[in-house]
From TrEMBL:
Organism: Alicyclobacillus hesperidum
Pfam family for this entry, one: Tlp
Taxonomic superkingdom: Bacteria
InterPro entries referenced in this protein's UniProt entry, alphabetically: SASP_thioredoxin-like
Protein name: Protein Tlp
Length: 76
């Protein structure tokens, strides 16, 4: 028998992932500001693209958080 879907802590988990992703963006930007001039241009570009994907993920996390919060309000 399948486990029932327990969504009670989904918002918390999503928020933690969002915060972690934002911190990764800040760290990458700080690193590039300090060392970007000494780096291979391909590596700089790769980090910039990675941060762009992180920003897209943040937008997705925010949408999921809204959906989960709405679900919790509806079912409590």
């Amino acid at each position: 028998m399948a486990k029932p879907d327990n969504r009670a802590d989904n918002v918390e988990h999503l928020q933690q992932a969002l915060n972690h992703t934002m911190e990764n963006i800040r760290e990458a930007e700080t690193f590039l500001a300090a060392h970007g001039d000494d780096m291979n241009p391909q590596d700089v570009s790769a980090l910039e693209r990675k941060n762009e994907r992180r920003r897209e993920a943040i937008a997705g996390f925010r949408e999921e958080i809204k959906d989960e919060a709405a679900h919790q309000r509806k079912h409590h």
